[in-house]
Amino acid sequence: MGALHQGHLSLVRQAAAENDKVFVSIYVNPTQFGVNEDLDSYPKTWDKDIEMLQQLNSDLKETTGREGAIDAIFAPTTKTMYPTLPPDSSLPGTGSFVNITPLANLLEGKSRPVFFRGVATVCMKLFDIVQPTRVYFGQKDAQQTVIIKRMVQDFHLDTQVCIVPTEREKDDGLAMSSRNVYLGERRRRVGIVLYQALQAAEAAYRMGMRKREEVLAFAWEVANRMSEAQDGLGAEERARFEVDYISLADPDTLEEVQSVDEAKGAVLSGAIKMLPLESVCEGERLGMGGDKVAVRLIDNIVLAPRPTTGMTLAMVLLRCTRGELGKRDERENEQEHRYATLT
Questions:
Q1: Torsion 334-302-244-7 (CA) sign
Q2: Domain that holds residue 294
Q3: Which CATH number covers residue 105?
Q4: 13/57 same-domain check
Q5: How far, in Å, CA of 304 to CA of 261, rounded?
Q6: Residues 21-49: pLDDT tens digits?
Q7: How many distinct helices (H) and strands (E) make up the chain?
Q8: In the prediction, which pLDDT does 5 show?
Q9: What is the helix (H) or strand (E) element at residue 193, kind and residue range?
C-alpha cells in the first residue's frame, strides 16, 4: 500500500534474512476502500518510499553480505491489477473477487464490509503474478493474517505465509501504521489508549482470569476512563475517540470466545476511531491534514497458550513457535497427506 514505515521495513528485513531473492510490492488497492472511506486522502509517498528501500538495501548488504538484497519493486498500475473492469468498492460489486467467509465478516469486516474482499483479491493477484515462495505480513493486522492463511490453504497455493511481530513507536508503544501521519501531538497522546486497554486485558489473563467478561472488563475500564477524561476537558485540549470494538477471539476462527482455552490461547484485538479535533490551538503540532481527518487505529495482542493437564510446557512452546494465527494442526495435515499418498 505504500506510505512505508519501519513496520514495513521489518518485513523486508525478515524476508532478506530468509530468502535469496526479495520482491517488494507497492500498490494502493482501491477495492479495499469502501465508498466513503479514505482512498483519496490515503498517504501516497512514492519518492520517500523508494528512498527508504534504497537505504534499507544498502544496510542489508552489511547483514546479508549480498549486494542488492531487494531484487525488485513491483508497483503495478490499476489497469494491470484490474484488466477487464474498473475496480468496484460497492456491495455486491461487479468484477472478479475472492471472498473468505465467514472470517472476512468478523471484527474489522463488520465496520468495513468490502475491506477483506479487496485484500484477499489483490493478494491472490499478487501471488499469481509474482509466484512467491514466502510472503510476509505484520502481526498488527491479525485478522488479515488469518484470512490470507485461510486463502492460501483453501486454494492450495504453494506459498508460505510468514508473520512478523508488530513494530511499535519507541516513545509510546503505538503500533506503526501509515495512517499515524494524520495524528498530531494531541490525538497521538490519546490514541495509545487502545494499546493500553489491550495491555490491561492481557495483564488480567496473566493473573489467571479466563472468562470473557473478566478479561475485557480491564480493557473497557481503561478505554472508558480515557473517554471520560477527554469529555471533561475543553475543546482546545481534548481529543475525542470512539471505540468500535474490543474483542477476545479464537486464534483460528476469530469467533468470540466466552472463556479462553488455555491450550489454544486467544487474540485480544480492538479498533478505535480518533475523531477530528474540535478546536486547534495556535502553534499546536498537527498531523497531516491538520487533524481534520478521522483516523481508524487497530491493534492486537496474542494471548499465548498455557500448560494444562496433559499438555507439557514443551508442547505449548512448540505450538507458539509453529502455530501462527490461522494455522491448522500439523498432525491433521500430515494425516491428510498420508491418506492422499496411500490412496
A1: negative
A2: 178-303
A3: 3.40.50.620
A4: yes
A5: 10
A6: 999 999 988 898 876 666 776 767 889 99
A7: 11, 7
A8: 86
A9: helix 193-206
Q: How many Å apart are CA 69 and CA 304, to the nearest integer?
A: 33
Q: Which residue has the cell 493478494?
A: 123
User: Would you state the cell numbers that stand for residue 257, as one nine-digit string?
Assistant: 470466545
Alpha carbon distance 301, 114 (integer Å)? 25
Q: Note whether residue 169 is domain-resident.
A: no
Residues 6 or more apart whose CB falls under 8 angstroms from that of 209 comprise 215
Nine cell digits for residue 335: 494425516
Give percent above pLDDT 70 in the chain: 86
CB 88 within 8 A of CB 31: yes
User: pTM score, two decimals?
Assistant: 0.85
Q: What is the β-pairing status of strands 134-138 and 160-164?
A: parallel
pLDDT per residue over 224-251, tens digit each? 999 999 999 999 999 999 999 999 999 9
Residue 7 in contact with residue 140, Cβ under 8 Å?
yes
103 plus 138 within the same structural domain:
yes
Residues noted as catalytic: 8
In angstroms, rounded to a whole number, what is the distance separating the alpha carbons of residues 300 and 266? 10
Output the nine-digit C-alpha cell for 28: 494502493
Q: Do residues 17 and 156 both lie within one domain? A: yes
Taking 80 as the threshold, does the pLDDT of residue 315 lie above it?
no
Strand runs (DSSP E) across the chain, as ranges? 22-25, 70-74, 134-138, 160-164, 241-249, 266-274, 295-303
Lookup: cell for 193: 489508549
Contact in structure between 11 and 53 (CB atoms under 8 Å)? no
Neighbours of 276 (CB within 10 A): 16
Q: Side-chain half-sphere of 175: how many Cα atoms within 13 Å?
A: 24
Tell me if 173 is assigned to some domain.
no
The terminus-to-terminus CA distance of the chain in angstroms comes to: 44
- Rounded Cα gap, residues 182 and 291, in angstroms: 6
